[in-house]
């Protein structure tokens, strides 16, 4: 039987975050462009060698990026909006990614249902695509030099690229006709280099509207097949649904499917799999960090083996969603570390499964075996017994646990009085080098806990003073004690574990270390009370209590795979409910429970939405519903499409929701308001992902757009996200201009 192995993407940030350090040094003019590009090359080539040494037969190349792959392909295809035409080279690239003075960046949103953000290409009738594949061809040549015929270029498919773009005054099919010759030209050039196969990534095929794209896919792949180079049509994140029956007939050499999510196995059983194609079996979960369980995976593979004879085993998705190497986590208990699987371990699992399915014995003593995997899991379960008390709490919840005592319309008049267009921020303030150094000194034991707390208190005091001088109406303590909005809470909850080197990319140079939920979740002590009390004692203005919501903590962690996501969310919500009660008792009149990841957890197919939204909304309500009517509950949500779940967002029953809106040209705000949202909304008036300081005039214009869409009493004024990634030199003038804009409009409204 023909069983090979493959990868369809790999981490690209560097084992020691080399790309982040190089990017940020370049932006600060500390290194040259040549030095930045050299760092990316070194990280990329090291990853290729790791995959080759693991014995992988087909290694995906070309997925490394300076910022984002969708941006890369937009640039390669000449999809450059007019406002960026005055720039060239890296200046243009980073202007599109981050914005530049007077030039807003491309919109950013979530990549399917992951926590990775991509930059949304803008395509209108003024754009005529023009290809420049020089840089990509150079990558392929380097890949060939290192990997030989194992090198398989990764290309974002044309239909997916357009499906995920913002199309203005142009039809997808019409523009696809302009792109298709460029894709054909690229494949022709790759074939001339001796490349035998390419991966065309088309994850749009798993979306619910994929059937409407059928003719486009058929046109594209019929045309590209004439080039004469083998195409692996790669899909992931879900099954193909009703599209499977026609996707299987496309003229490609291989089809890669995700067998860790959705029901692709049932589709193959129902429709069969073509004998003339290779099946890419995405069997190792590329989005979670648990070692495979042989009692689940091997029977599944045995069944697939009876359905087709030409199989390639691979991760279910790019390994960019997991860290590099679990063996580096020396601070974790051995029993836990041994059941973790990061990118390098997943390569070993792919090899193990291919070897096992072929009936081969291990050739190297250190290689995985079924006995070793089973022993690892047995040791873990002995180390991590279930908490029956937590399970009982979840099982015994009643409807009253999810319900505020008064409706929004009745409680809003009881809440803290504020001026029209009240101003605030989302929560975090700049994480300066001094603040990061302070946390590192404490972590290393170079300063005592008392010294650390005194230093954090001093940072809070400075932050409160700055906010009062700026004139904000509702203040925050700044979150200087928090490395990450999820990590911070997980570190204080039983059932979570944390890595030292487990970084994954969120966007650009923004990396996070997702916590690992490995056991039942319990709050053992207050988590934010001390910092809140310090801040509130320094001012007569209200200070928000700041928490991360249960669904976001779940979605931005690596969850357990032996307990439902609903039950994990409810466990976290119960822990937060206790924290909310403590903040309220300490005098907090406003408590913000952020849920930026609520929508990204939506299943990719509409028919699965209601179940997720039911328990996700309930988890938020469980965390917040116990407060008195006088206590105002805020939440915050990141870039996403709100319109199609606006009724569910309203069902959260938060008094105020703040949204990221500035990059969408108020489209996000319009989606919310057109949906009839009746609670208060913080209109994100400027883009914190850009270093550009907005002018007062720009902010007045943005606020007027809000007033045009909403009654005045519903509107709050805030940046579109937290400010931790910005520097004080950007934050202070931006917030001053924001407050001034709000005051100008208040004066206009009075007159």
Brief summary:
By secondary structure, the protein is α/β, with parallel strands linked by helices. Helices cover 42% and strands 13% of the residues.
The geometry reads as: globular
Q: Numbering strands along the chain, what is their spatial order in the largest sheet? A: 1-12-11-10-9-8-6-2
The major pleated sheet works out as: 8 strands, parallel
Distance between the ends: 81 Å
Number of helices: 27
| Strand residue content | 5-15%
Radius of gyration: 26 Å
Model description:
There is one protein chain. This protein has an eight-stranded parallel beta sheet with strand order 1-12-11-10-9-8-6-2. It has 751 residues and is an alpha/beta fold. The model has no long low-confidence stretch (mean pLDDT 94). The termini are far apart. α7 packs parallel to α8, α15 packs across α22 and α17 packs antiparallel against α18.
Notable characteristics:
alpha/beta, single chain, eight-stranded parallel beta sheet, 27 helices
């Amino acid at each position: 039987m023909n069983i090979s192995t493959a990868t369809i993407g790999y981490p690209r940030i560097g084992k020691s975050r080399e790309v982040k350090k190089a990017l940020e040094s370049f932006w600060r003019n500390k290194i040259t462009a040549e030095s930045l590009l050299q760092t990316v090359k070194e990280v990329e080539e090291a990853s290729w060698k790791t995959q080759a040494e693991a014995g992988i037969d087909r290694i995906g190349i070309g997925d490394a990026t300076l910022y984002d792959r969708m941006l890369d392909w937009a640039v390669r295809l000449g999809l450059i909006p007019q406002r960026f035409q005055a720039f060239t080279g890296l200046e243009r690239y980073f202007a599109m990614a981050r914005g530049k003075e007077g030039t807003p960046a491309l919109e950013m949103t979530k990549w399917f249902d992951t926590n990775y953000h991509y930059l949304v290409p803008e395509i209108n009738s003024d754009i005529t695509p023009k290809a420049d594949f020089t840089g990509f061809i150079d990558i392929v040549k380097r890949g060939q030099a290192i990997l030989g015929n194992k090198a398989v270029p990764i290309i974002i498919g044309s239909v997916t690229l357009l499906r995920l773009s913002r199309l203005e005054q142009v039809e997808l099919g019409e523009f696809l006709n302009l792109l298709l010759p460029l894709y054909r030209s690229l494949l022709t050039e790759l074939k001339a280099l001796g490349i035998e196969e390419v991966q065309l990534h088309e994850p749009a095929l798993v979306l619910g509207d994929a059937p409407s794209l059928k003719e486009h896919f058929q046109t594209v792949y019929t045309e590209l097949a004439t080039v004469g180079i083998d195409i692996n049509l790669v899909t992931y994140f879900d099954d193909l649904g009703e599209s499977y029956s026609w996707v299987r007939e496309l003229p490609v050499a291989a089809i890669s499917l995700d067998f860790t999510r959705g029901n692709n196995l049932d589709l193959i059983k129902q429709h069969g799999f073509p004998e003339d194609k290779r099946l890419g079996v995405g069997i190792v979960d590329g989005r979670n960090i648990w070692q495979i369980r042989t009692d689940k995976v091997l029977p599944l593979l045995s069944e697939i083996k009876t359905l087709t004879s030409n199989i390639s085993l691979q991760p279910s998705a790019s390994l960019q969603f997991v860290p590099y190497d679990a063996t580096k986590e020396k601070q974790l208990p051995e029993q836990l570390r041994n059941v973790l699987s990061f990118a390098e371990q997943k390569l070993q699992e792919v090899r193990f499964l291919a070897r096992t399915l072929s009936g081969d014995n291990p050739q190297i003593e250190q290689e995985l075996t079924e006995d070793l995997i089973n022993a690892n899991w047995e040791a873990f379960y002995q180390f991590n017994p279930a908490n029956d008390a937590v399970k009982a709490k979840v099982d015994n919840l009643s409807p009253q646990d999810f319900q505020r005592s008064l409706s929004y319309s009745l409680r809003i008049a009881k809440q803290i009085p504020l001026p029209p267009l009240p101003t605030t921020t989302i929560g975090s303030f700049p994480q300066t080098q001094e603040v990061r150094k302070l946390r590192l000194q404490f972590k290393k034991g170079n300063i005592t806990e008392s010294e650390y707390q005194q230093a954090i208190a001093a940072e809070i005091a400075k932050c409160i003073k700055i906010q009062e001088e700026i004139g904000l109406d509702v203040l925050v303590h700044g979150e200087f004690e928090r490395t990450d909005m999820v990590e911070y809470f997980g570190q204080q909850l039983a059932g979570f574990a944390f890595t030292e080197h487990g970084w994954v990319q969120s966007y650009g140079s923004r990396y996070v270390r997702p916590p690992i939920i490995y056991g039942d979740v319990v709050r053992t002590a207050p988590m934010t009370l001390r910092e809140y009390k310090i801040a509130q004692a320094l001012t007569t203005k209200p200070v928000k209590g700041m928490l991360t919501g249960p669904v976001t903590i779940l979605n931005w962690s690596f969850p357990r795979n032996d307990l439902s996501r609903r039950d994990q969310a409810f466990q976290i919500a119960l822990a937060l409910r206790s924290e909310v009660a403590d903040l309220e008792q300490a005098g907090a009149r406003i408590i913000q429970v952020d849920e930026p990841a609520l929508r990204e957890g939506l299943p990719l197919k509409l028919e699965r939405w209601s179940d997720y939204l039911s328990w996700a909304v309930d988890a938020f309500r469980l965390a917040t519903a116990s407060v008195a009517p006088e206590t105002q509950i805020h939440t915050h949500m990141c870039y996403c499409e709100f319109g199609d779940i606006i009724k569910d967002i309203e069902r959260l029953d938060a008094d105020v929701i703040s949204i990221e809106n500035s990059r969408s040209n108020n489209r996000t705000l319009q989606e919310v308001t057109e949906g009839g949202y009746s609670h208060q909304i913080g209109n994100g008036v400027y883009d914190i992902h850009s270093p550009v300081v907005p002018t007062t005039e720009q902010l007045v214009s943005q606020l007027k757009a809000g007033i045009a869409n909403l009654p005045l009493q519903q509107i709050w004024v805030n940046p579109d996200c937290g400010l931790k990634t910005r520097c004080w030199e950007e934050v202070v003038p931006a917030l001053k201009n924001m407050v001034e804009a709000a005051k100008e409009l208040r004066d206009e409204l009075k007159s």
